[in-house]
Sequence to fold (281 residues):
Amino acid sequence: MSARNLQTGRIARRFNALKAEGRAGLVTFLTACDPDYDTSLDVLKGLPAAGADLIELGMPFTDPMADGPAIQLASQRALAAGGSIERCLSAVRSFREQESETPLILMGYYNPIYAYGPERFCKDAAEAGVDGLIIVDLPPEEAEELLAHARPAGIDFIVLTTPTTVGERLPVVLGNASGFVYYVSIAGITGTASAQMSAIEEAVARLKAATALPVAVGFGIRTPEQAADVARHADGVVVGSALVQALAESLDGEGRATEGLKDNVLGLVRALANGVRTARG
Fold:
């Protein structure tokens, strides 16, 4: 397998294109295999046309400690449906059969990757068409055993920063970053609160002074109006819990997909995309 160049990969190309268009990008999150493999894949394949500029695909995990109730339940549904790293990579391969340009990032926790084997995981992820990784619980001091294989495979390592990532800690966190920087706008779990816009604006300015990478903002963004507000300042707007909740509300009493699930989720994506795309006039 030949290494891919991170500077010319899909994530870099997409953010360069967004900058040329003068707008932010919409980054969507859904959990792989939620509520089942086929439904999840069908929705995944519909995301680019609905307006997703970049896609985060969650790897289901038994203990998603940074996530709120909506995404925790999504992981439980996905695991019950047979969700695994292998199934995630299978979905990516199927997605890539029809979509070659939209960046796809796997987001999750390190334990399943460690069990799978970091070298094998990065090789298989790159071959499937994965562009980046967000590993929530892997601090920079312990990231090298994954980075040593991700970098040669041409996979971006996207770091999380928070309102408390300041002072001497910030350059340590940013030292391993590529692709973009994900700013977690609240100190807490996903889907539970929203940050003040003034605080987001200040944080984005602080991060841009410290890195040349694009800055995407997530946690607590649920509506097209909130997405538009963030899009006026950030390079990317990440929406996860709201989409996962829309999916959950489209399940029947047995937790199975109803006929309207795909339209409900992609309809929200279209509304969010319109907010992001029109935010700067």
Remarks:
- The first helix runs from residue 10 to 21.
- Strands lie at 25-31, 54-58, 104-108, 132-135, 156-157, 159-161, 181-184, 215-218, 236-239.
- The chain has twelve helices and nine strands.
- The CA atoms of residues 195 and 217 lie 10 Å apart.
